[in-house]
Amino acid sequence: MSNRAELTRRDILKSGAAVATITLASGVTLMAFGGSDANATGADAGKRWGLLIDANKCAADCSDCVTACKTENGWGSHGEHASPETDVAWIRKVTLKDKQTGRTVSAPIMCQHCETPPCVDVCPTGASMKRADGIVLVDKHACIGCRYCMMACPFKARSFVHEDVTDQSVNAPRGKGTVESCTLCVHRIDKGRIPACVESCEAAGHSAILFGDLKDPDSAISKALLNYPSIALRADLGLNPGVRYQNL
Length: 248
Known about the structure:
This protein is of the alpha+beta class. The protein has one domain: 2-Layer Sandwich (Alpha-Beta Plaits). It has helices at residues 9-13, 64-73, 118-122, 148-152, 186-189, 196-203, 220-227; strands spanning 20-25, 28-32, 49-54, 91-97, 104-110, 128-130, 136-138, 159-160, 179-180, 209-213, 243-246. The strands form 5 sheets. It has a 3-stranded mixed β-sheet with strand order 10-3-11. A two-stranded antiparallel ribbon has the order 1-2. Strands 4-5 form a two-stranded antiparallel ribbon. A hairpin with a 2-residue loop joins strand 1 (20-25) and strand 2 (28-32).
C-alpha cells in the first residue's frame, strides 16, 4: 500500500519512541502513557505528528475512517443501554453546508492534538497529557472521570465511558468511568506504522487524510501545508492544532 507521508518503519522508530505497558489480563495491556511525565515514553521532541484532511477528497457517504478507528481501538456501541448521548466517539464525520452557496463538504473530526491543549490545562490529576511529539493522550491510571477535559475541549472530541467494557482491543484497553479520545493510533506510530484512519482512507482510494511529521520540512504533509492553503478549526483560540483541513 502506498503511503503518501513517505514514512518508513525506521523513520518513526529512530525517534526512540517506546511505550511501557502494564498487563491487565491475558493479552490485554494498558499503556502507561506517563501521566504528568509526558516524556516518559521517550517520544522525540524533534517531531510533531499531525494530519492534513482534504474535504474535497472526503466522500460524504464514506465512513471508512470511522469504521477503521472502531475496529483498531475497540470502541463503539456497547451494551443495551448505549445511546447517542452516552456512546463513545473517537472520530465522527461532520457535514458542513454553506448557506449562501449551498456547497456541502464532509470531513472527519477527532482530537485535534493541540500544541496548547485546554484538556491538559484543566485536568486536576495530570491524566490528560501531551507527549513530546505532540500526541495528546489520557492516562487511564490517573483519570478520575471528572470530565473537566470534556468541558474544556472546543472540538467535542472526548467521550466518557458510561458502560462496562468487554472484549477490549489489546491496542487500546478502556475502562468504565474514564475519559478517552483519538490517540492518533499511538501504538501504531510507535511501531513505525500509520494511523488506522489514514490507512483505511488510502485503501478506499480517497487519500483524503495525510499523516506525517509537521516539524520535518521535507515530509509530504509539510510540503502540502506550504504549497496549499489550509485552516485550523477554531483558529481564533490560538491552540495550534496538529490536525489541519483543506477545502473545508
